[in-house]
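[Q] Does anyone have a clean C-alpha cell version of this?
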Amino acid sequence: MDEAEFRPVTDLLAESGMTVEHPTLGCGMLLDVVGEQVKLPPERILELVGLSVGPLCLQFWLSADVDVVCDVRYVAPDTQILTFVLHGLTKNEHDRAEGAIQRLIARELDMTVALLVDLGGETAEEDDDALVLYGRLPTGPRPDRVQFRTDRLSAVPEVLAGAEVTDLGYGQSAVRW
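[A] Here you go.
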C-alpha cells in the first residue's frame, strides 16, 4: 500500500470521525518503540506508511483526547495488516471506531482480506497472520470473530470446519467458533 493507496483509507476513516490529524494540535502522531508520541505532519505519516519501511504505530483521533492506536505491519510486498487497538474506549467510542472500520471495509472490500475481532487481545499475532494469509486455524486462542469476503470462503475450508458462518451482506461473512 503506497501513499496514494493509504490516503483513501485515512480519508474514509476521517469521514467517520477518525482522523490522522489531531483535532486541536494540527499534527499527526506516530508512537515510538516506548510508546511516546512523535509529532509529524499528517502528510509525512502517510508518506512513511507508503514507503513500507517497517512497522509503524500511529494514532487516529476520535476527539482531542481520545485516540485509536493503529499498528501497520507489512507481511508481504502487497499485504499490510492494520491492527486497530480499541481497548480503553468507552462503549460509545468503541462503537464509533468499530463503525468507522466497518465502513472502511465495506468501501474497500476489494482490498480487504479479512477483519479479525479479538476483544480480549488473546490471539497471537503469528496466529492471526496464519489464519488470514494461509487459512490455518490458530494453535492457541482464536479471535472472537473473523469477517471474510464471502467470495474467499471457499479458499479457507479448514477455517470453516466447525464454525458458524453468517452472511453479513455487502459481500462479507462472519465466522465464529
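[Q] Thanks! Anything notable?
[A] The mean pLDDT is 89.
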